[in-house]
Design brief:
about 45% strand, mainly beta, Immunoglobulin-like
């Protein structure tokens, strides 16, 4: 590839690989004209800087030659893109000759991730390999950045976020330990991808890996100790994958009987989903942060004494929190509770026969009852069964 300016021809290669060898530029004057009494130099600029040219390097051309070769050393051109090689008159800053565009590619660099792993369970090994030998950049303060990018649940969506980042001083295959991303950074299910960029030009990646698919682990469990015998503490037992520096949240909610059976647009028979943390059916009770190495946490029974004569449903959630502050419920466990001193018949009828406890003073003897009457707490209680709408003393 060449270009002619006046009586001088400038020749540069059509393509070039950054950091992979010297760049050879040739110049020649027509008719064996000797370049005497000239103050010319050759420079190399990035074509995208047109209008704001800052040469990567300059090489003076001594007088007395009609042709010659100029070697641009390996490492001067250290980024992919497009280049122009120019012959410039330093006295006037006129461009005497200019090459056509030189296409510059990155050296052959491969990034590889596992095909799939489990979230918050498995470390991710990143394989970085550079084909052949490459030289180091001759530009100042150049470094490379390895990023692990979360692509979202669907890899084709535009939602992307960097979850892990590591700086590399040179572009070379690791000679000792492999690059490992801790399981604590793999905190959501979905798709991930590794990207390697240069500080010289981050918009043109050096390499991009395959897509890693991450799924949630099946090794979660959650149970509650019996609440009917609760005197001082009750225990929430949980299991989860172990991963250093990872914390989970055990969160408690209580739902009372009158929220079970109202059949309107905001509630569903059998109970709305406690995983919807804003649901008005549920009263927040308490929560604890637990390490992934823990297997149980205790709560005071006093937390459940807000309505100590009613039957209620207690639900525990085991949730993880991702780096973007999103919460992911891994397990839910719910249990109806009978408090100490509550008759077994009362517990059975109110829990299993879909009843409501109401104040007996509000109902006259022989009067029918409805399942939408409000629940109140009194010393004497009666139960209104859904079938027949009859009052029964407990």
């Amino acid at each position: 590839m060449f270009a002619v300016g006046g009586n001088v021809t400038l020749t540069a290669p059509r393509s070039y690989t950054a950091l992979a060898g010297d760049l050879l530029v040739m110049f020649a004057a027509d008719d064996d004209t000797v370049l005497s009494n000239t103050d010319w130099y050759i420079d190399v600029v990035e074509s995208r800087d047109s209008g704001h040219l800052s040469p990567l390097t300059t090489v003076d051309i001594p007088g007395g030659y009609s042709d010659g070769e100029v070697i641009i050393g390996c490492g001067v051109v250290d980024v992919a893109g497009q280049l122009l090689v120019r012959l410039v008159d330093s006295t006037t800053s006129d461009i005497v000759a200019q090459s056509s565009v030189v296409d510059v590619a990155w050296p052959s660099v491969t990034l590889r991730l596992p095909v799939s792993v489990t979230a918050l369970s498995d470390d991710v090994r990143v394989t970085l390999s550079v084909a052949g030998s490459v030289c180091q950049s001759r530009q100042s303060r150049v470094y490379y950045t390895l990023q692990l990018v979360y692509l979202g649940v669907n890899a084709s969506t535009a939602r992307k976020s960097v979850v892990y980042e590591q700086t590399l001083a040179t572009l070379a295959s690791p000679s000792s330990s492999p690059l490992v991303v801790s399981c604590s950074f793999i905190d959501r299910s979905g798709s991930y991808q590794a990207v390697l960029t240069s500080s010289r030009r981050s918009d043109v990646p050096v390499a991009v890996s395959n897509v890693l698919v991450v799924s949630w682990s099946a090794r979660y469990s959650l149970t509650l100790s019996p609440l009917s015998t609760c005197r001082r503490h009750f225990v929430v037992r949980h299991t989860q994958p172990r991963c250093p520096d990872v914390f989970y949240t055990v969160r408690l909610f209580v739902r009372h009987p009158h929220t079970y059976y109202h059949d309107d647009d905001s509630r569903v028979h059998g109970g709305s989903d406690v995983t919807r943390l804003t649901s008005r059916d549920w009263r927040y009770v308490s929560e604890r942060r637990v390490k992934s190495s823990r297997t149980s946490v205790t709560f005071d029974c006093a937390l459940l004494e807000r309505d100590d004569t009613t039957t209620s449903e207690l639900c525990a959630l085991l949730a993880s929190t991702a780096s973007d502050e999103s919460q992911h419920v891994q397990r839910r466990f719910c249990a109806s509770q009978r408090r100490p001193g509550q008759s077994l018949l009362h517990f059975f009828l109110t829990s299993l026969l879909y009843s409501e406890i109401v104040e007996s003073k509000t109902a006259r003897e022989g009067m029918g009852c409805r399942n939408d009457q409000p629940a109140r707490l009194l010393d004497k209680r009666r139960v209104c069964l859904l079938w027949g709408h009859k009052w029964y003393d407990l």
